[in-house]
Design goal:
Number of helices: 3
Distance between the termini: 30 Å
Structural class: alpha+beta
CATH architecture: 2-Layer Sandwich
CATH class: Alpha Beta
CATH superfamily: Lrp/AsnC effector binding domain/regulation of amino acid metabolism (RAM) domain
Helix content: 25-40%
Largest sheet: 4 strands, antiparallel
Low-confidence stretches: none
Radius of gyration: 14 Å
């Protein structure tokens, strides 16, 4: 499994809509609206192969209107001892 973090710089009026559109793309598992000046949105991509990553980033993400630029960070190794799915599970509503 290949993991990547895509930092998205977006037009301010499109941030909320883009976040929802990104979340609907196959291969993107989480989308976060963020603050701090480096990016407006962070999308986490989990795919099987590099070709799949290319399709998600250059074929799907970059095609969305309102995206000004992207920076893709490819993860080499995971160092967490936590079960990430369990960590983010808040339990029954």
């Amino acid at each position: 499994m290949l993991h990547a973090f895509v930092l998205v710089d977006a037009k301010p009026a499109r941030i909320a809509a883009l976040a929802a559109e990104l979340a609907d793309i196959e291969g993107i598992t989480e989308v976060f609206s963020v603050a701090g000046g480096i990016a407006d949105i962070v999308a986490i991509v989990r795919v099987r192969q590099h070709d799949d990553l290319v399709e998600v980033v250059t074929g799907r993400i970059d095609a969305l209107p309102g995206i000004q630029s992207t920076t893709t960070l490819v993860a080499f190794q995971t160092y967490s001892r936590h079960d990430l799915e369990a960590m983010w599970d808040l339990g029954p509503a």
